[in-house]
């Protein structure tokens, strides 16, 4: 495997800026890697080789002219989840409903990446409209986990996480509504970050659940994630939910944390995230991670957040309700799929036929749940009650953060399960997000960092670190310190152990 493919994003940016290597060479190396292994992994829905090489050439021209880099990641390749509008490039959200749609504008995240000189390789696979925990709900087939091609890479952003683990890209962007960045990060041995809600613009992000959706960085190291975080974050007047506040100093925190000293940091262990339903190997990995934090000087305390026990049912009322409203825009009248428009049918008939053909089973399930929860006579009993639980969860976080700096838990109760194992059992699938959902409901920051491999099956396990809203830098400091200590203890990085995949085409 090429050294360019193995390098971190920070290392690549430094090599490009010093002219040790060109951005075109870096982009081509990753495009070659995609051509080599993506037939097996299926991380990408669309590879924009022409656009990527053109963007890389512009970076090289700037470097040759002696101009300062557009950003600390100028020239570094990135895989973009196919839920962000990208001008002139197919944006499908993993759905037949938007097959072939080429948006006329860029999402704010897309625009900021381009302005920063980041090279967008293409669009990654995802559960349809971000509804799922395994990327099996994509209308274009499942993505596979590079650690074991028979297993899921997480969801909904499995394409982004798999592209990192397969060394097809050093950086990726995902979205996290109930864990769709962190859970894929956990099961693929990569870093996934959900910033504070409103910390990254949602303009041009095709909405699933507007009060929960949050874009965030995905990477193979904590520092790389922090560098990407600072590029995409910041106030956006085009997004009414965007927070008008300074971007937390996440890069400085990651660099500080790498020194390995957590003296004075209070870490709360959430007692609700353990016990029945948790894989023993996951719990052992978590306990070892907590012990490592203690060795670094952190004070460890147990914290009870009793309302977290109700997060899963509350989420599966709030998110489908908002999905029911948001997905009503796909009406076959303006853009996207249109079925049955033969001149003899009414608009209502065309709309019904299109939605029947265009939406997959999971999307239909959630639309029906949400529509029922919002219906007359049931709104207060279901949606209203779920919002009250949401308030209680936020209060539990506030109470916890009054006594600790960050909270920690396993990211997900199990390692990656086999493709097809849970498709017939929606509740089993939903439980993959058991630990991640509370942070979405409260809107605070959370991330997953690899905590090694399970001693049961040799698959990656993630450590979740949660911080108060707008205090994202706290979790980066803790994550970077843990990452450095973990690698020193192992003698290597977690991601270095992923199978090479050469010649593994299926």
UniProtKB/TrEMBL annotation:
Transmembrane segments: none annotated. Keywords: ATP-binding, Ligase, Nucleotide-binding, Protein biosynthesis. Signal peptide: none annotated. The keyword Nucleotide-binding applies. Pfam families: Amidase. It is an enzyme of class 6 (ligase). InterPro entries: Amidase (IPR000120), Amidase_CS (IPR020556), Amidase_dom (IPR023631), AS_sf (IPR036928), GatA (IPR004412). GO terms for biological process: translation. Heterotrimer of A, B and C subunits. It catalyses: L-glutamyl-tRNA(Gln) + L-glutamine + ATP + H2O = L-glutaminyl-tRNA(Gln) + L-glutamate + ADP + phosphate + H(+). GO terms for molecular function: ATP binding; glutaminyl-tRNA synthase (glutamine-hydrolyzing) activity. One of its GO terms (cellular component) is glutamyl-tRNA(Gln) amidotransferase complex. Belongs to the amidase family. GatA subfamily. This is Glutamyl-tRNA(Gln) amidotransferase subunit A. The active site is at 81 (charge relay system), 156 (charge relay system), 180 (acyl-ester intermediate). The keyword Transferase does not apply. Its EC number is 6.3.5.7. Residues 25-474 form the Amidase domain. Allows the formation of correctly charged Gln-tRNA(Gln) through the transamidation of misacylated Glu-tRNA(Gln) in organisms which lack glutaminyl-tRNA synthetase. The reaction takes place in the presence of glutamine and ATP through an activated gamma-phospho-Glu-tRNA(Gln).
